[in-house]
Design a protein that fits this description.
Strand content: 5-15%
Radius of gyration: 23 Å
CATH topology of the largest domain: Transferase(Phosphotransferase), domain 1
CATH class of the largest domain: Mainly Alpha
Shape: globular
Largest sheet: 6 strands, antiparallel
CATH superfamily of the largest domain: Transferase(Phosphotransferase) domain 1
Strand order of the largest sheet: 2-3-4-5-7-6
Distance between the termini: 56 Å
Structural class: alpha+beta
Order of helices and strands: HHHHHEHHEEEEHHEEEHHEEEEHHHHHHH
CATH architecture of the largest domain: Orthogonal Bundle
Amino acid sequence: MQNTFNPYHKWLAIPPEEQPPTLYRLLGIAPFESDPDVIHSAADARMGFLRTFQAGPNAAIAERLLNEVSRARVCLADPARRAAYDCVLRAAKPADAEASEAAGPAVRPEATTAAGPAVSDGMFGNYRVLESIYASRLGEVYKAIHVPSHTLVSLKMLPTEATRNPETLRRFHREQEITCKLDHPNLVAGYESGTHRGVAYLVTEYVVGTNLATLVGQLGPLPVEQAVAYTVQAARGLTQLHLHGVFHRNIKPHVLWVDMRGQVKVGNLFLAKLGEYASVDDGQDDLTQMGQMMGTPEYLAPEQAVDAKSVDQRADIYSLGCTLHFLLIGRPPYGGKSLMDKLMAHRAQPIPSLRTLRPDVPEHVDRAFQRMLAKERGQRYAFMGEVVDALEPKPRIGFLARVLARWLPRRR
């Protein structure tokens, strides 16, 4: 991580501890302000100030912030968008709290031992530890500042007890390697990883928002446009993983985070699998035993329930389809009282129709969903990019339009 210029702090007086700024903080107005005149006046003032830097050495940064302020104005001035944003803001918490999904029951931070010997005078290497975010048997996550660059980060450490389990340690090393190597706007960004004073750690961007499970829990089923947009963003992040031969294997609403700018980020790569031609090399053999089940039953592809070792990108496509159902209907597509009931439902019960449960769902979205949840993986989309295309269909040019498009240039 390099020592970089921090425009929020230098220009807008937003300290690292309050970054990334909320849209309200970005405009310099009170949280949940709803008066359009106040919003527009604040945006005009911010943009006027930022334009004074457009001709200087940081012109590109000024342009980026101008675009951010403009998007903030558009969101907060629209009552519907502001309401959705306010819901995310009220439920906001650091994305690293997702560790609970893979780690099981949480433990009290003071009961863990990783931070003790590794943190000296509040410092962990170049990072000043601010507060504990979450602690479990598989990871302790802290809010911290990278001192040289004044950047707010999430600092994840592996507890001492976890390092005694060889498989856990190897999986954490794999998570370190994948997170720091792959870069995409829809993936939680990794900055640095390594070992400090015997403690394995991973530094990522500090994402503040809410996971989609919490958002639906508070709002209920989402508007169709919003649910599809979130699904498409997740699919784009997963496309980046799949292009590098990485399969997530635990996609569900709980690991998909929407930040305070409305951007979805895929996190929690602890169960990720490296394919045969993966571009990420962590020096480890396949960590999954044949016949082993991994993932969450409500979102698990039928073949993954039988053998997680053999899955590929089509298992993630299935799980993302189950997630789309949750966003639109408010529950996973299949239920059951026991683990076996849930697993058998994925294999035996008919694929539900989104349009039957919710008539405002467009036909093309329901068709895409049906194919994503095909029982046999050979009948699903082969690549996550096809899911994006199916959920965001391009306007089709009619036969006559195609003929004219070819004929007119020759007539000139």
